[in-house]
C-alpha cells in the first residue's frame, strides 16, 4: 500500500472517530456541559483508550470549531461541544481578530456587548477592532442594536438571535422607545375587564318611595263619597294593570355596576386576563407573558383602582374603593382622566369633590362668589 493510500485511510478513520465522538458528546450532555479527558474516554469511542488518538480527534474537532477548549483555574483542560451551524459561522471568521471579537459577542448572548468593552477585554487597537467589526457585519454574523439601558452606547449582538427583553425593554418598548400610549390603553382594557367580571349590571329604580306612591292603597275604593272607607271585596275597584311611566314622583332607572356578594369565586386571575389580551388582538401581535400582564395589574393595584382577593385558593382581582361603578368603559376614551365612577349630583357638582369644602363660606378666601369651578359648572364664566 502506498503512503498516499495509507494517509487517505487514516484520514477516513479519523473522520469516523470525529463524527462518533461528536455525536456521543451531543447525546451525553447539553451544549454547555464540560468534558474532561477521562469523560471523553468513557464514551467508548476511542479504541483501546488511546490517548494519542484522542488528542488527534479532539484537535481536529477543535480545528473545525465543533469543540471549544476551556481551562480551569487549576490548569485542567476541558472541552464542550458547539452546534454545527454555529461552528460554520466561526469558520467564516478568516482572521484571529474576527474569531476573538465574534466569540465575545457570542458569549454576550441576547444582552449584547458594548464596543468599548470589546476593546478593553481584547486589548485591541481601535482601527483593528473597527475593521473586525465591519467584516463581521458584512458577513452577516453580528449586527449593531440599541440597548434601552444604554441608549448612547454602540452595542453589538449576534445577527442570528433576538435581543433580550432586558436589552429591548420587552413588549413595553417600540423601536427602543417607551410606548406609554400602548401601556395606558392595555391598562384601561384590563381595568374594564376586571370591572365587568367583579360586578353585576343593575337597572334598579332610583327611588323606592316613588314606587310606593304609584301603587294604590290595598282595598280602597277609588272615588265616591265614601272614599277611603273599607268596603266589601266585591265593591273594590281593580288596581290599574300598568303603572304609567309619566306618573308623578317617578325617577328614571339608573344603570350601575354593583359589587358581587361575599364568597364569590369567579374573580379574574392573571391567567384569565392574559388570555383575554391574547384573544382580543389589542396587543398588535406583541406576545405578552403572564409576568408582563402581572406588571400591568400591579400598576392598577398601586393606583388603588383594583385590589387582589384570595378566594378558593387562588388570587383574583376586583375593583377597589367605589361600591357603585359606572357602566361606561375606560378604554377608548381620549381624556387622560381615570375610570369614570358612578355619578350622582354630589359627584357632578364641584362642591361634592372640592378639597377645601370645609372652609368655603361667604366672605372667606373661598366661597360661592369667587369659586371659578362653581361658575364654570353653572355656565357663568366667559368662554
UniProtKB/TrEMBL annotation:
Q: Name one GO biological process term.
A: transcription by RNA polymerase III
InterPro entries per record: RNA_pol_Rpc34, RNA_pol_Rpc34-like, WH-like_DNA-bd_sf, WH_DNA-bd_sf
Q: Give the Pfam families listed for this entry.
A: RNA_pol_Rpc34
**Residues annotated as region Disordered?**
202-254
Cellular compartment(s):
Nucleus
Keywords, comma-separated and alphabetical: DNA-directed RNA polymerase, Nucleus, Transcription
A single GO CC term for this protein reads:
RNA polymerase III complex
Instruction: Specify whether Zinc-finger is a keyword of the entry.
Output: no
Compositional bias segments (type: Low complexity): 202-211
Q: Does the record carry Nucleus as a key word?
A: yes
Q: Which top-level group of life is the source organism from?
A: Eukaryota
* Compositionally biased tracts (Basic and acidic residues): 226-237
Q: What does this protein's UniProt record list under function?
A: DNA-dependent RNA polymerase catalyzes the transcription of DNA into RNA using the four ribonucleoside triphosphates as substrates. Specific peripheric component of RNA polymerase III which synthesizes small RNAs, such as 5S rRNA and tRNAs.
| Similarity-based family | Belongs to the eukaryotic RPC34/RPC39 RNA polymerase subunit family.
Record-given protein name: DNA-directed RNA polymerase III subunit RPC6
Originating species: Beauveria bassiana (White muscardine disease fungus)
Amino acid at each position: 500500500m502506498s503512503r498516499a493510500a495509507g494517509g487517505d485511510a487514516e484520514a477516513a478513520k479519523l473522520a469516523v472517530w470525529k463524527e462518533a465522538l461528536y455525536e456521543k458528546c451531543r447525546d451525553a450532555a447539553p451544549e454547555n456541559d464540560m468534558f474532561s479527558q477521562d469523560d471523553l474516554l468513557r464514551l467508548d469511542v476511542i479504541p483501546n483508550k488511546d490517548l494519542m488518538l484522542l488528542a488527534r480527534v479532539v484537535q481536529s474537532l477543535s480545528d473545525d470549531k465543533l469543540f471549544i477548549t476551556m481551562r480551569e483555574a487549576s490548569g485542567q483542560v476541558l472541552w464542550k461541544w458547539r452546534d454545527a451551524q454555529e461552528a460554520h459561522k466561526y469558520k467564516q471568521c478568516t482572521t484571529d481578530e474576527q474569531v476573538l471579537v465574534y466569540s465575545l459577542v457570542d458569549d454576550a448572548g441576547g444582552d449584547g456587548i458594548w464596543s468599548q468593552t470589546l476593546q478593553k477585554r481584547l486589548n485591541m487597537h481601535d482601527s483593528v477592532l473597527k475593521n473586525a467589526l465591519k467584516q463581521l457585519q458584512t458577513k452577516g454574523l453580528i449586527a449593531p442594536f440599541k440597548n434601552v439601558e444604554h441608549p448612547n452606547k454602540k452595542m453589538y449582538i449576534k445577527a442570528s438571535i433576538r435581543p433580550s427583553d432586558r436589552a429591548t425593554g420587552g413588549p413595553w418598548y417600540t423601536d427602543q422607545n417607551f410606548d406609554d400610549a400602548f401601556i395606558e390603553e392595555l391598562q384601561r382594557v384590563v381595568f374594564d375587564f376586571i370591572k365587568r367580571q367583579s360586578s353585576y349590571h343593575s337597572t334598579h329604580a332610583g327611588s323606592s318611595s316613588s314606587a310606593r306612591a304609584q301603587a294604590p292603597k290595598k282595598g280602597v275604593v277609588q272615588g265616591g263619597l265614601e272614599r277611603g272607607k273599607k268596603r266589601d271585596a266585591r265593591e273594590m275597584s281593580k288596581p290599574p294593570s300598568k303603572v304609567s311611566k309619566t306618573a308623578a314622583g317617578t325617577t328614571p332607572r339608573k344603570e350601575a355596576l354593583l359589587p358581587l356578594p361575599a364568597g364569590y369565586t369567579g374573580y379574574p386571575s392573571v391567567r384569565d386576563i392574559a388570555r383575554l389580551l391574547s384573544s382580543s388582538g389589542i396587543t398588535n401581535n406583541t406576545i405578552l407573558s403572564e409576568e408582563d400582564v402581572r406588571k400591568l395589574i400591579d400598576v392598577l393595584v398601586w393606583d388603588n383602582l383594583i385590589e387582589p382577593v384570595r378566594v378558593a385558593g387562588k388570587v383574583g382581582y376586583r375593583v377597589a374603593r367605589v361600591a357603585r361603578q359606572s357602566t361606561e368603559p375606560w378604554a377608548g376614551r381620549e381624556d387622560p382622566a381615570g375610570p369614570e365612577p358612578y355619578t350622582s349630583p354630589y359627584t357632578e357638582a364641584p362642591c361634592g369633590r372640592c378639597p377645601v369644602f370645609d372652609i368655603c363660606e361667604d366672605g372667606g378666601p373661598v366661597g360661592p362668589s369667587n369659586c371659578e369651578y362653581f361658575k364654570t359648572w353653572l355656565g357663568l364664566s366667559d368662554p
